[in-house]
Amino acid sequence: MEVDEMEIRLSEVKGELKDDGHMLYSTGKSSSSSNETLSRKRQREDCSDSLGDVKKAVVVLTRLPDYKISALRPPTPPQFYSEDESLSSSESDLQWEPGNDSSGSDKSKSKKTQTNGQRPKSSTSGASASVPQPSPIIISTAFGISPDETRNVRPDLPDDEITVDMMVLARKRHMRWQRGKIVEIITKDVLFSEDGHVKYKVQFEEKGKSLVSGHHIAFDAIPKREQLYVGARVVVNCQDNASHFQTGIMVELPSRRNRLRFLVFTDDHVPIYVGLPLLHLVCRPLEDPLDDLRDGPHKTFMTRYLKDWPRPHLTVYKAGQSISVDLNGVEQRCEVQEIDSSLMQVVFKENQEKEWIHRGSTRLEHMRRIFSVRESEEEQQRDSSD
Questions:
Q1: 76-99+134-142+311-386 sits in which CATH class?
Q2: pTM (2 decimals)?
Q3: Range 150-308 classified under CATH 2.30.30.140
Q4: Domain residues of the chain, as ranges?
């Protein structure tokens, strides 16, 4: 018996098989051994499949905090037609921000703080410790892409005829125009009629008469869209008084930026957005409409504006921002209340009066600064050329 058991064990040792590093012992039953081998192979295949699944790449999306997103997003100035939207880089060709004399010292202080590894101490001394108001960005941007939006040359159209008994708007005195009727056309000589030697006697509806030139009367009828252009001499019907008219110069044609409105600067530097029914075209304007303006800051501003068109300079302000505005030659602090395309409404802190101001007006502190810099540069260029 002992000999038989030894022989069986020796045969088992001799019949050992190696399969991928695993020992399979033969027990004399080939069918059970093969089944066991197949089952172990399936286990290894299942195991390898499970390992392969684990090794597959898995992408996990993690939402960044809002402060990181805002830090990665480049700042852009707002749109003119909506201060809540951004201005695309293709619509702007100049951005300028006035610098402060203390900017260099602030940077050096921040570097020292980072070197020492200490955080700056926050001050809580009231209003003086509040964050200073950022300087506004001054941008130069196109106001349109089609000739109908940027036309600044008088269209080559025939002049409308002026006849006796025609209803017109005529200047009664400076900045005061009224409706009346032409009762007589006085011509010194037919040869000089094209040189402005024609006078028109107007009988006003209210009372009185006046003898005026062709650039001091305007058509009572509503002008056609194709007759208007930037720089045109126009008369505006004031919305609060149907019988009150003021002269001005067209500075914007309808576009998506200004919500399809006309912008006019009256001769007293007041900007007004109006629709076509409130406009009247001057009958015989001067070759240079600026010659009809009095010398002063407004004429200087209009000269610069028409020179820069269609890329005039505008400041980018936000509602609630505190700024300085010139009021009758005195700097006054005021707060921005509302933005409307190229205009903004401000309220003066001293008397709480509200006023609409053009965002490129020289009454603004930052616009005077950039214009003075440009004038200095232009003067240096003229000196160098001489």
A1: mainly beta
A2: 0.64
A3: yes
A4: 2-52, 76-99+134-142+311-386, 150-308
Same CATH fold assignment for domains 76-99+134-142+311-386 and 150-308: yes
- Biggest alpha carbon–alpha carbon distance for the chain: 156
AA identity, residue 225: R
- Low-confidence stretches of the chain (pLDDT beneath 70): 1-60, 64-136, 140-142, 189-196, 241-242
SS (H, E, C) the chain: CHHHHHHHHHHHHHCCEEECCEEECCCCCHHHHHHHHHHHHHHHHHHHHHHHHHHCCCCCCCCCCHHHHHHHCCCCCECCCCCCCECCHHHEEEEECCCCCCHHHHHHHHHHHHHHCCCCCCCCCHHHHCCCCCCCEEEEECCCCCHHHHCCCCCCCCCCCCCCCCEEEEEEECCEEEEEEEEEEEECCHHHHHHCCEEEEEEECCCCEEEECHHHEEECCCCCHHHCCCCCEEEEECCCCCCCEEEEEEEECCCCCCCCCEEEEECCCCEEEECHHHEEEECCCCCCHHHHCCCCHHHHHHHHHHHHCCCCEEEECCCCCEEEEEECCEEEEEEEEEEECCEEEEEECCCCCEEEEECCCCCEHHHHHHHHHHHHHHHHHHHHHC
State pLDDT tens for residues 245-284.
Answer: 999 999 999 998 899 999 999 999 999 999 999 999 999 9
CA-CA distance, 312 to 361, in Å (whole number)?
11
